[in-house]
C-alpha cells in the first residue's frame, strides 16, 4: 500500500533534519601518538592482548592497540568497562622525542631500512594518520624505546666489547663476576634473555628471575655455544645451566 502524502512528507522532513556526521577516516598524528604513549604508561609495557579477570576488583587491562583504537572510535562505549585515558604533559613530551627519533630515518633515507621500520616511519610521517593504522601507532612508543635502546647497546658493544673473546669450549664450566648490559623477556619461555660481560667478554643466557641492567652477579654455567651478538658481530659465549649469585 502506498504511503499517504502526509506520511511521505513526514519521513522526508525527518530525513532532512537527521544528523549526518561522517565517520572520520583520519586523526591527528600527534594526538594518536599521545594516546599511544598514555597506553604504554598506564600498562607499563606493550600488551598485545586485553586481560580480563574473574574477580570484579581487578580492573580490565586493555591492550595498547585497543586503548588507542577505542579512544578515537565514534562508537561509544566501545566496551562497557573502558575508560579513555587522558594524555599528560609528559606524554606529549615523549611524542616530541618519538617524532625527533623517527625523523632521523627520514633524513638518512629508507633504502637500507627493513620493511617493518619503513612501515612505522611512514605511518607517522604525516600530520594525520589513517584510522586503520591506529593499531600500528599504538606500538610506536614501544618500538622507539627498543630502537633507542638497541642503538645505544650497539654503540656500547662496538666501542667497549668489540674485542670480546670466547670463554672456554662447548660444555666447559664457566664462572665469573658479570655485569648485565641487556635483558629481554621471552613470553614463549617465560624467562629473561640476558646479555652480560665477564672481564670485557660477552656472554648470554636465559634466567627466569628479573635482574636489572647494570647489576653485578656471580655467574656459574656451562658453555652451550660460541656465537656472535645479534646487534654487533662481536664474539659471545652462550651459557646454559646458569646460576646467579650475589657478588
Structural descriptors:
alpha+beta; about 250 residues; OB fold (Dihydrolipoamide Acetyltransferase, E2P); 7 strands; about 25% strand; five-stranded mixed beta barrel; two-stranded antiparallel sheet; globular
Can you walk me through this structure?
It is built from six helices and seven strands, in the order αβααααβαβββββ. It has helices at 5-16, 29-43, 64-71, 89-108, 115-123, 134-160; strands at residues 26-28, 128-130, 173-186, 191-198, 201-207, 216-228, 235-246. Helix 2 (29-43) crosses helix 4 (89-108). The chain has two domains: 24-160, no CATH class; 173-246, OB fold (Dihydrolipoamide Acetyltransferase, E2P) (Beta Barrel), CATH 2.40.50. Mean pLDDT is 87; it is low at 13-21. It has a five-stranded mixed beta barrel with strand order 3-4-5-7-6. Strand 4 and strand 5 form a beta hairpin. The protein is globular. The chain has 247 residues and is α+β, with helices and mostly antiparallel strands.
Would you kindly provide a brief summary of this structure?
The chain has 247 residues and is an alpha+beta fold. The protein has 2 domains: 24-160, no CATH class; 173-246, OB fold (Dihydrolipoamide Acetyltransferase, E2P), CATH 2.40.50. It is built from 6 helices and 7 strands.
Q: Sketch the major β-sheet.
A: 5 strands, mixed, barrel
Question: How many domains, in number, for the residues?
Answer: 2
Number of strands: 7
The percent range for strand residues is 15-25%
In spatial order, strands of the major sheet run: 3-4-5-7-6
By DSSP (H or I, 4+ residues per run), the number of helices equals 6
Helix and strand element order: HEHHHHEHEEEEE
Radius of gyration: 26 Å
Judged by helices, strands and strand pairing, the structural class is: alpha+beta
Low-confidence stretches: 13-21
What general form does the structure show?
A: globular
Q: How would you state the average pLDDT, rounded?
A: 87
Amino acid at each position: 500500500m502506498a504511503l499517504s502524502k502526509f506520511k511521505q512528507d513526514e519521513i522526508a522532513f525527518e530525513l532532512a533534519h537527521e544528523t549526518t556526521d561522517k565517520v572520520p577516516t583520519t586523526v591527528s598524528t600527534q594526538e594518536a601518538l599521545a594516546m599511544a604513549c598514555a597506553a604504554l604508561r598506564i600498562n607499563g609495557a606493550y600488551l598485545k592482548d586485553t586481560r580480563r579477570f574473574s574477580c570484579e576488583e581487578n580492573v580490565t587491562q586493555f591492550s595498547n592497540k585497543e586503548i588507542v583504537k577505542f579512544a578515537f572510535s565514534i562508537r561509544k562505549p566501545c566496551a562497557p568497562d573502558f575508560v579513555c585515558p587522558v594524555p599528560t604533559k609528559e606524554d606529549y613530551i615523549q611524542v616530541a622525542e618519538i617524532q625527533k627519533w623517527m625523523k632521523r630515518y627520514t633524513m638518512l633515507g629508507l633504502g637500507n631500512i627493513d620493511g617493518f621500520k619503513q612501515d612505522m616511519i611512514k605511518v607517522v610521517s604525516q600530520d594525520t594518520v589513517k584510522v586503520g593504522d591506529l593499531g600500528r601507532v599504538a606500538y610506536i612508543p614501544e618500538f622507539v624505546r627498543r630502537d633507542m635502546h638497541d642503538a645505544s647497546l650497539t654503540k656500547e658493544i662496538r666501542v667497549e666489547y668489540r674485542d670480546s673473546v670466547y670463554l672456554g669450549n662447548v660444555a666447559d664450566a664457566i664462572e665469573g663476576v658479570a655485569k648485565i648490559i641487556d635483558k629481554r623477556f621471552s613470553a614463549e619461555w617465560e624467562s629473561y634473555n640476558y646479555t652480560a660481560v665477564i672481564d670485557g667478554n660477552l656472554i648470554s643466557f636465559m634466567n627466569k628471575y628479573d635482574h636489572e641492567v647494570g647489576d653485578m652477579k656471580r655467574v656459574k654455567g656451562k658453555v652451550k655455544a660460541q656465537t656472535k651478538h645479534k646487534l654487533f658481530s662481536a664474539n659471545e659465549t652462550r651459557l646454559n645451566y646458569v646460576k646467579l649469585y650475589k657478588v
